[in-house]
Amino acid sequence: MNETELRELSRAFLSDNDPNAMASLDFLRARFDAGLAWVHFPTGLGGLGLPRQLQSVVDEELRGTPDNDPRRIGIGLGMAAPTILTFGTDEQKQRFLRPLWTGEEVWCQLFSEPGAGSDLAAAGTRAVRDGDDWRVTGQKVWTSSAHNARFAILLARHDPDLPKHAGLTYFILDMTDPGVEVRPLRQITGEAEFNEVFMTDARVPDANRLGAVGEGWQVAQTTLMNERVAIGSRPAAGGSMADVVAQTWRDHPAGHTTELHDRLLDLWARSEALRLAGERLRQQLAVGAPGPEGSAMKLEFARLAQRLSGLEVELLGVDGLRYDDWTMRRPEKVEFTGRDAGYRYLRAKGNSIEGGTSEVLRNIIAERVLGLPAEPRTDTKVAWKDLPR
Questions:
Q1: Which residues contact 26 (CB under 8 A, 6 or more apart)?
Q2: What 3-state DSSP class applies to 242?
Q3: Are 334 and 193 in contact (CB under 8 A)?
Q4: What is d(CA 54, CA 62) in angstroms, rounded to the nearest whole number?
Q5: What pLDDT digit, counting tens, does each position of 305-328 carry?
Q6: Is the same domain home to 41 and 145?
Q7: Whether 201 and 263 share a structural domain
Q8: Which label site among 45, 71, 164, 298 has the fewest CB atoms less than 10 Å from its CB?
Q9: What is the reported pLDDT for 324?
Q10: Does 235 lie in the same domain as 147?
């Protein structure tokens, strides 16, 4: 199917499904069933098996119709969905992808732990086989949207006698299980956008395992690469955030200096370079899975978001220090460009931590992109239970 045929299909879909006469959820379900959710997914799973770049054709034709909210279901869209598509069984794909895309079911990511953040492979949350189920016990932390989530993608250790990378298995956890407890963590913005999650004999059917037993690290790499692409391609560090700061510059001429002007031009140029790099990366994704290049996107996104928000505060002077919506704590509505400068400045501080710290991403870029020698590691062949913690 070419671009012209896809436009005709999209228009025919709109002719048969009037968004003004349908509930939003019904429209989204119909769009998924028509293969217009994510066109690069297979037929029957919300797609048409087309190149990824043709999604922009559908989005253009359906602009203004009901859409899902990526701020609320971004983890499902950017991380869970591609992992389920790559490693899931036919039954798992049929069960999870449609309500994930429509937003009926929110997802979270249970990876980081108090003792396994930057070194994720050291995760110690334990999964013990119990007949046709697994019983999971442990603690996860920094889990965005856990308080709203119906399901979680979970990395757990099934065998502590194996080296840390080999003893991991990947699961889909029902967050409504009585063995799951979610506790909010208050952050610098005043919101509780993320949480710590405690699991005590939480039951996971083996049918909800993604990939083979012991394949958890390989499955997790798919999630992490997609996560970094999803975060790095956000508009906050590209055109949108640069546009916000440029408008602030125009609105506050009294504070103009040559130094601030030079910084604005430099950040605008870097934002444009990031936008173009994102376009190239999306074209690469059309012919294969994301690679370590996504780490560079995410690294630059974090740096730009922090520098742009810092410049905005300087341009605003005293007004830039205000953050007046402390009572509007809606973590499912976290925004990077739509609120005031004080909020944007505070929230950007987390960009260099979430989705892989900037320090870890620099190591990935050095080793896997630039081909530099890896840092010496002495713990990769030692049984996890024998590692110091």
A1: none
A2: helix
A3: yes
A4: 13
A5: 999 999 999 998 888 877 765 544
A6: no
A7: no
A8: 71
A9: 62
A10: no
The CA dihedral of 133, 209, 173, 215, to the nearest 10 degrees, is: 120
CB 292 within 8 A of CB 369: yes
199 shares its domain with 266? no
Structural domain tally of the chain?
Answer: 3
3-class SS string, 290-311: CCCHHHHHHHHHHHHHHHHHHH
Kindly state whether residues 365 and 254 are assigned to the same domain. yes
Length of the chain: 389
**Residues 113 and 124 sit within 8 Å (Cβ to Cβ):** yes
> Around 99, how many Cα atoms within 13 Å sit in the side-chain half-sphere?
11
Give the pTM: 0.85
SS3 19: coil
Two tokens, residue 114: 């108090």
Cα 272 to Cα 84, 257, 321, distances in angstroms: 33, 23, 27
> Looking at the structure, do residues 206 and 227 belong to the same domain, yes or no?
no
Do both 229 and 200 map to the same domain?
A: no
> Does residue 281 have a pLDDT over 60?
yes
Based on the fold, state whether residues 228 and 343 are members of the same structural domain: yes
Domain of residue 235, residue span = 220-369
The pair phi, psi for residue 5, each rounded to 5°, is -65, -35
Residues acting as catalytic residues: 227
Tell me which residue of 150, 158, 152 sits closest to 123, measured CA to CA. 158
Considering only CA atoms, which of 294, 311, 304, 310 is closest in space to residue 237? Answer: 304
Query: What gap in Å lies between CA 32 and CA 22, rounded to an integer?
Result: 15
Distances in whole angstroms, Cα of residue 259 to Cα of each of 36, 248, 253 = 47, 16, 14
Is 257 domain-assigned? yes
